[in-house]
């Protein structure tokens, strides 16, 4: 399958592919990632994750896959919200996973949550392994979006639930204009200063702008084998919660 939208990479001058660039970028900011996530979103990202987890909880999952798990925030929140669940998180950035494992040790969650190095486009699990699959702010970083989504569909059982959070572009005036100014002019400066990695926070708005949000993404989910794909804008459209079934 091929992408149907512009390919945006963290460093246009690099000879490396998107996957390698994204892994390197997140490895470089791993130590500051959690702080910047909460700081730059004013803490609202925690509420967004809870809404996504409530969606996957509707199928009473026992096994959840968290794709592009990063430092494990989504996996930890799911474990706290859903009784008896085990969560497997996969990510291509080894340093992000190391930061996540430190949190699992502190929270004594190493038996319920595992974080593994893995490629979303070639998931190392048999078909139908999970009751639910979730991904927070990772799908726009896939080198091939449709391949990654098809893999997520493959490893989900029939009747399972998908929940994806991704940034989107607000539509309402004047919030759209204010948010666009913040996202493109202010956030890259603050993020670059605090993370010491300017590229990561210029790539963020560029990748969001190129991402096929809303109905376009729902159509791609359907193309990749999911059913009943829905898009639910959150916080005036700053982010969107996508859900689907198999």
What does this structure look like?
By secondary structure, the protein is of the alpha/beta class. It has one domain (18-169, 211-245): 3-Layer(aba) Sandwich (Rossmann fold). The chain is built from 8 helices and 7 strands, in the order ααβαβαββαβαααββ. The protein has helices spanning 18-40, 44-56, 73-81, 94-106, 145-154, 175-195, 198-210, 215-223; strands at residues 63-67, 86-91, 113-117, 130-136, 156-167, 227-234, 239-245. β6 (227-234) and β7 (239-245) form a beta hairpin. The longest helix is centred in the first third of the chain and has 23 residues, at 18-40.
The count of strands amounts to 7
Q: Domain count, please report it.
A: 1
Q: Could you state the order of secondary-structure elements as H and E? A: HHEHEHEEHEHHHEE
Could you say what the CATH topology is called?
Rossmann fold
Query: What's the CATH class, please?
Result: Alpha Beta
Assign the CATH superfamily: Vaccinia Virus protein VP39
Mean pLDDT: 91
CATH architecture: 3-Layer(aba) Sandwich
Helix count, DSSP H or I runs of 4 or more residues: 8
Biggest β-sheet description: 7 strands, mixed
Cα-based radius of gyration, to the nearest Å:
17 Å
Shape: globular
Briefly note the structural class of the backbone: alpha/beta
Distance from N terminus to C terminus (CA atoms, Å) equals 19 Å
Quote the beta fraction: 15-25%
């Amino acid at each position: 399958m091929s992408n149907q939208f512009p390919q945006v990479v963290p460093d246009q001058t690099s000879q490396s592919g998107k996957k390698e660039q994204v892994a390197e970028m997140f490895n470089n900011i791993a130590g500051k990632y959690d702080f910047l996530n909460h700081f730059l979103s004013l803490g609202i990202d925690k509420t967004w994750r809870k809404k996504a987890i409530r969606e996957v909880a509707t199928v009473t999952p026992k096994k959840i896959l968290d794709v592009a798990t990063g430092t494990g925030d989504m996996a930890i929140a799911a474990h706290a919200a859903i009784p008896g669940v085990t969560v497997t998180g996969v990510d291509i950035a080894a340093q992000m996973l190391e930061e996540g494992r430190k949190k699992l040790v502190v929270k004594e969650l190493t038996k319920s949550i595992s974080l593994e190095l893995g490629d979303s486009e070639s998931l190392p699990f048999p078909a139908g392994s999970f009751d639910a699959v979730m991904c927070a702010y990772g799908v726009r970083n896939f080198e091939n979006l449709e391949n990654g989504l098809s893999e997520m569909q493959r490893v989900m059982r029939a009747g399972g639930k998908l929940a994806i959070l991704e940034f989107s572009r607000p539509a309402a005036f004047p919030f759209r204009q204010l948010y666009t100014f913040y996202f493109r002019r202010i956030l890259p400066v603050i993020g670059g200063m605090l993370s010491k990695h300017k590229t990561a926070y210029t790539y963020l708005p560029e990748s969001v702008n190129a991402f096929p949000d809303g109905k376009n993404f729902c159509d791609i989910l359907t193309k990749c084998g999911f059913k009943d794909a829905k898009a639910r804008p959150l916080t005036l459209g700053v982010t969107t919660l996508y859900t689907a079934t198999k």
